[in-house]
Please model this.
Amino acid sequence: MDAWQLAGYAAWAISALLLGWMVLDAIRVNREYSEDLLLSSREGYDELLEHERTGDRR
Amino acid sequence: MTDHAIAAGQPQRINLLKVLGPAHVWALGVGIVLVGEFMGWNFSVGKGGALGSLIACWVIGLLYTCVAMIDSEVTSTVAAAGGQYAQAKHIIGPLMAFNVGLYLVMAYTMLEAADALVVGDLLAAVAGTETFNTQPWVVLTIAVLAFLNYRGVFMTLTVNFIITAAAFISLVVLFVGTQPWNPGAVLQHRELLTDLPYGWIGVIAAFHFGIWYYLGIEGTCQAAEEVRSPGRSLPLGTMSGMITLLIAASITWYAASGLLPWEYLGQAFTPMYDSAVVTGSDFLKVFLAIGTVLSAVASANGCINDAARAWFSMGRDRYVPLWFGAVHPRYRTPFRSILILIPIAISFAFTGLLDQVITFSILSGLLGYTFMPINMILFRRKWPLNSIRRGYVHPFHPIPALVLLALCIATYFAVFLGYGNQLLAMMAFYIGASLWFAFHRYKYVRRGDQFTMSWPKPQGY
Model:
C-alpha cells in the first residue's frame, strides 16, 4: 500500500466526518427549532433597515 | 447570534446574514470564473487557432461586459438571493423564473462537479501512478467546501477572496516571468502565431470555448441578499470582477500563445502549467500548479454558494418544496439547500465525463444569458428610469441588451457546430421541466407572496 492509497483512505474518512457532522447538525436543528422559525426568511426583508426603524443600532 | 440568544430572544424571523462587502462579491464572481483561465479556454485555440481564440476572447468579453452591466442594474434594484431567478420572477413571470432558477442550479452544480473532477485529475497527475483513485479527492473537495458554506457565508467568501487573489497573482507572475517587454527572449509570438487555420468559421466555433474566459461572473448576483449595501457593492464587485477577468484573459492568452504552438495548446489539459514548464523555471512551475488547484477550489466553492442560494429562493417561493427554504438559526445559511445539492454534485462528478458535464453547464449558462436582454428591455419598459429607485443605471440602453442577444445567437450556433446533440437534449430537458412546473407544481405556489418588491404597477398594466 503506497502513501497515496493511505492518503486516499484519509480523504474518505475526513469526508465522511464532515458530511456526517452536517447531517447530524441539520437533524439537531430540525428537532430544536420550529419549522415556522426556520422557514421565516422573507425575500426583500432588510434587517439593517428594520434595526434603524426600531431605533436599535447594534 | 448563538442558539441560546435565539431561544431567549425569540426572534420572529431569521434571514440570511447581511455581512458581505464588494471584495466578497468580487471573490464570488472571479472565484467561480478564474479556473477557466487555467484550463478550458485553450480549446478555443483548437477550434480557431491562436488568433481565433484572441478574437473569441474579446467578442465573448463584450458579451460578458453586457451581462455585467445589465446584471448590475437589475440586481442592485432586485436585491434578493436567487439573483436572476428573483429578477425573472418580478419582471417576466413565474414560468421564466422557474426556468432561470433551474438554469442557475444546473449550471453551478455541474460546474462544481467539474471543478472537483479537475482537482482529482490534477492530484492524479502529481501522483503519477496508474492505480491512483480520484474519487476520494473529488468527495473531499466537495465535502470541505460544503462544510465551509454550511458554516457561514462570510468565512466562505473571505477564503474565496484569498485563494482567488493567489490564483490571479500566479497568472500575473507567469506573465511577468515571460518578459513581455522583451519579445523573442522567452515569448515566441513571431514564430508561433499563424493565420486562422480553419478560417472564420473556426473563429465562430471558438466562441463556444471563449465562454470559459468568463463563465460564472454573473454569479455575483446570488449574493444580493447578503451584501450590506447592494446598490453599491454589487455593481462595484461585478464590474471590478469583469475588469479583472478581461485582464486575466488577455495575459493568459498572451503568455500561453507565445510559449506553446497552437496545435498543442488547443488540446492541452493544463495549458498554464504547461506554459510554466516551457519557461524552465521551477518556481513558476510550482506556483502555476498551486494556482491551478486553487482556482478549481475557488470555483467549486463559489458554485456551492450560488447553486444553494438559487435552490433556496425557489424553495422559499414553493417553486420546489418549501422545506428547502429554511435558514440555519445559528449560521444563517440555506443549510438544507446546501446539503441536498452535495449528493447531486458528487453524482455528476462520479460520471467522470468532464467535457459533457462542462458542456451542460455552459449550455445552462447560455440559456440564462439569453434571458437577460429580454429581461432588461422589459424592465426598462415596465419601470422606466425614475419610476423606481435603482442602485445603478447602466449606460447606452438598449445597446448592451441587443449586443448581448446577438452574441448569444452566434454562440448557440458555435455550440451547435460541436455539441448539437447535447444542445437539443438540454432543450428537451428544460421543456419537460417547464411542463411539470406549469401543469403540476405551480398550483402549490402562493401567487401573491412571490412578488416582494414595493414597486408601483408596471407601465401599461
